[in-house]
């Protein structure tokens, strides 16, 4: 009996909970309380949902349509509206004629936009850098990524300040094509290539449909440089340096053996050779030397008489610094010009990266003139006060600074530092002068630099 009473009580409590839940949710199966949605209400809610979806699609279609209309297309559309108003109002036949012609032109332009925009593209330059006066070839790869043919389109490739237009032919399913653009490099700098835009438009330019990719490339146009002869200027003895042709009695790089001379240290006696020849023989070594070079370029535009003179200075500085990199010398290459992406240094010396010749020439390609930098005398003083162990310093400037300023800049360095001042004067007579405490070289053309370096002994 107790078990039956417990089971009856449980069933009664469960039924009560079910009834209360049904009352709260509307009682779908019963007619009392909050009744279920009527068919008219369900149709009204469904219509609202469809209206919202249709509205979103219409807004997207309207935005796409307005983006596809060019300024010429908007003008033709305005002519159609004006012609229709003139035809309805004053009943001008000419208005109807203009409206019909404009509408026909818009209808004819529509088929040129058909087709999907499923492309795969890539920009592939054959080189990342070139010397002034050379050319670069940029290949544009376009692939149809859809399973349907793609109508012809126009590929627009920004190259520096210009815009190259390349014609993309009719592409079958998953077919690809390569388009080539030749990029000329008439002057030093950085050429920005990309992003690529594929566009379709009608011959009259009324409607236009385009898609753009983010692929971009930077092409560096290096300044022309002169091949300088190997030289030993500024070399100082350093056990961590490289072996040279100079022979010495004590060093790390063994060269040969020779007969003993009075005053030679006995610790350098080569006993095997002594035993073979019966004569006392000593070791001879190649002296380890290194040069710590600083190339300081004056980037102030007011110090140069013309743009050609400034570019000559860049080429001279690039030639000297690249030669130091190729010879494996310790170097510090700096100027007063700071790229906009970095914060200028306190002492005004902006070092150029010089881990290898290509990186250094890329930096020279990016360098520009400045109007608010420090004078090169102040930069020379900052370089001398920096505590860098230098053996030779090259100061490159224009034709405007006088001799007093050059002497003041060179006087900032200790006497054991060789100072080479290079004045770049466009089409001037080349000459080299030894003026204490510096060597002054006047360069009128880049081809004069190797001969002047030999004459000055640098």
UniProtKB/TrEMBL annotation:
Keyword Transmembrane helix tagged: yes
Keyword Nuclease: no
DUF58 domain sequence ranges: 257-329
Biased composition (Polar residues): 1-16
Coiled-coil portions: none
Pfam families tied to this protein: DUF58 (PF01882)
Keywords, sorted A to Z: Membrane, Transmembrane, Transmembrane helix
Domain of life: Bacteria
InterPro entries per record: DUF58
Region Disordered: start-end pairs: 1-38
Positions of transmembrane segments: 68-89, 95-114
Name used for this protein in its record: DUF58 domain-containing protein
């Amino acid at each position: 009996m107790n078990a039956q009473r417990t089971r009856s009580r449980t069933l009664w409590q469960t039924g009560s909970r079910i009834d209360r839940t049904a009352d709260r949710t509307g009682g779908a199966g019963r007619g009392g309380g909050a009744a279920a949605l009527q068919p008219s209400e369900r149709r009204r809610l469904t219509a609202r949902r469809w209206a919202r979806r249709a509205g979103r699609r219409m807004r997207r279609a309207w935005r796409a349509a307005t983006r596809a209309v060019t300024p010429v297309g908007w003008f033709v559309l305005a002519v159609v509206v004006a012609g229709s108003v003139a035809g309805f109002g004053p009943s001008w036949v000419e208005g109807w004629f203009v409206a019909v012609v404009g509408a026909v032109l818009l209808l004819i332009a529509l088929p040129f936009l058909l087709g999907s925009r499923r492309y795969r593209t890539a920009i592939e330059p054959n080189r990342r850098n070139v010397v002034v006066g050379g050319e670069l070839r940029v290949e544009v790869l376009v692939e149809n990524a859809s399973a349907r043919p793609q109508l012809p389109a126009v590929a627009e490739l920004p190259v520096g300040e210009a815009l190259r237009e390349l014609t993309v032919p009719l592409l079958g399913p998953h077919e690809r094509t390569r388009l080539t653009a030749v990029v000329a490099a008439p002057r030093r700098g950085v050429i920005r290539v990309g992003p690529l835009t594929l566009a379709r438009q009608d011959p009259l330019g009324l409607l236009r449909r385009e898609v753009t990719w983010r692929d971009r490339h930077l092409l560096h146009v290096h300044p022309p440089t002169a091949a300088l002869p190997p030289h030993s200027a500024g070399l100082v003895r350093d056990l961590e340096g490289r072996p040279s042709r100079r022979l010495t009695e004590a060093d790390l790089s063994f060269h040969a053996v020779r007969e003993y001379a009075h005053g030679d240290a006995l610790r350098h006696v080569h006993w095997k050779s002594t035993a073979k020849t019966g004569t006392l023989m000593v070791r001879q070594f190649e002296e380890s030397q290194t040069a710590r070079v600083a190339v300081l370029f004056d980037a102030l535009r007011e110090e140069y008489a013309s743009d050609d003179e400034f570019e000559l200075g860049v080429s001279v500085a690039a030639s000297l610094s690249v030669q130091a990199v190729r010879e494996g010398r310790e170097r510090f290459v700096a100027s007063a010009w700071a790229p906009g992406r970095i914060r200028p240094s306190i002492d005004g010396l902006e070092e150029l990266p010089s881990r290898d010749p290509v990186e250094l020439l890329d930096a020279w390609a990016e360098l520009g003139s400045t109007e608010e930098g420090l004078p090169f005398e102040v930069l020379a003083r900052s370089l001398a006060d920096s505590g860098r162990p230098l053996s030779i310093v090259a100061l490159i400037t224009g034709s405007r600074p006088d001799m007093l300023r050059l002497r003041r800049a060179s006087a900032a360095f200790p006497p054991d530092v060789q100072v080479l001042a290079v004045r770049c004067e466009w089409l001037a007579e080349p000459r080299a002068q030894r003026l204490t405490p510096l060597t002054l070289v006047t360069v009128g053309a880049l081809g004069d630099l190797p001969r002047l370096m030999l004459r000055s002994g640098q």
